[in-house]
Every structure is written in C-alpha cells, then in structure tokens.
Design brief:
By secondary structure, the protein is mainly alpha-helical. The protein has six helices and two strands; from the N terminus they run H-H-H-E-E-H-H-H.
Length: 185
Amino acid sequence: MTAELMRPAAAEFLRIAHGVPDLTAPTPCAGFDVRGLLNHLLYWGPWLIAAGRREDPPSATDAVLVTDGWRAALEKQTETLVDVFETPSAWTGTTALGTTQLPSAVVGAMVLGEFVLHGWDLARAQGEELHCASEASTVVFESAVAMGEQARSMGVYGPAVAVSGDASPLERALGASGRDPAWRA
C-alpha cells in the first residue's frame, strides 16, 4: 500500500532538508534555487493537507515562506502530510486540490512524489544522494508516467529524460518527471 511508503520517504526528505547549507544553490528542478524550491514546498503543502482532509484550500498568497523558522515549519508540515496520508480514507474517492477534482489516490501519489522528487532535488543541490525505497520510487515513476503529459503541459514537469534500460526505479522516476539523473550542482 502506498500509504506505508509515506513515512520512510518523508524521513529521508527531512534528513536532506535539515542539511541544507546554501539557500542560493541551484537545483535540478527547473527555475528553482534551493530557497525557491523550499518556498514551493511550504506553499503547496497546506493545499495537499487540505485535499487529504477534504477541507477547503488555504487562501492563496505568494508570500515568502522561507524565513528563519523554515526548517521547523517544513518538519511540522511534513509530519502533518504523513499523518493525513497514512489514513486510508485520504486515498479513497475524490477530493479537491483547489478547484480541481482529482482521485484521492492521485493526490496521495503527488505527496509521495513531492518527498521523493524534491528530496532528490535538494540532495543534488547539496551534492548528496537521496536514499529511497525502490517501492516508493516505482510508485513515483508510475505516477509521473500517468500524469506526465498533463504535468508537462502545465509546466510542472520538463520533457521526459531518457534513462538506460537498467536504470534504477529512482532514475526512471526522475527521467519520467523531466529530471536528468546525472545532474550535478
């Protein structure tokens, strides 16, 4: 079950995020340095939490969210996301992400993808490796393939990156989401 993959992926994501030394470093996530990527995560997290709880979305603001307390805020948000998406009901039926109705399982897979893909982005920005269970990477890969064209049309993913036939599940997920697994800062 995908919900079981959430906590280990979140723990690795937080391990990487807590080690961020340079907010200005480039990331493999197009258009984002580390600060911009963290701001993105802090902005969208409450939307994903609301979708998992089937609550109204937060008020939309373009606030600067990476302040002195960003690590604690990201940790709290990540723990809440895990708590919400470990609940089986968060994966059933449909829910709203803003004004868009989606299958709840798609939103859950998006949360896992945030931990894995953006965890990798932050790891690479620091010259580190992300340690991810192959099962989690496979779910993220399948999700990236399923929503790939729509995500690319919305600018969420870049063009798919070809990977070798013997690529790891994480490398396949990265390529499907428009990331080059060989990217280095």
